[in-house]
Amino acid sequence: MYYKRLRDLREDKDLTQKQISQYLGITQPQYQLYESGKREIPAHFIVLLSEYYKVSTDYLLGLQD
Predict the structure, then answer these.
(1) Full-prediction pTM beyond 0.90?
(2) d(Cα 63, Cα 58) in Å, to the nearest integer?
(3) Element of type H or E holding 62
């Protein structure tokens, strides 16, 4: 599931949820909902995060390893 990948990528880079939420222009609690899978993450955030982490959107979505 891509929610786990969001957390794994963030932790691999020693980043906090607050840092990522600031990059996306949202609040930390809002980002936490995306990362925990309690809310669907918008497609434009998937694109921004794939560019930030330098991975494909398919990877973030769990469509490829």
Answers:
(1) no
(2) 5
(3) none
Distance separating alpha carbons of residues 65 and 56, to the nearest angstrom: 10
Dihedral angle computed from the Cα positions of residues 11, 42, 55 and 51, in that order, rounded to the nearest 10 degrees:
-100
Burial class (CB in 10 A: 0-12, 13-18, 19+), 49: buried
Distance between CA 30 and CA 41 in Å, rounded?
Answer: 10
Write the single-letter amino acid at 14.
Answer: D
Mention every residue, 6+ apart, whose C-beta is less than 8 A from residue 2: 41, 46, 60, 61, 62
Task: For residue range 21-38, list pLDDT tens digits in order.
Answer: 999 999 999 999 999 989
Helix (H, G, I), strand (E, B) or coil at 55: coil
Rounded to an integer, the average pLDDT of 34-52 is 94
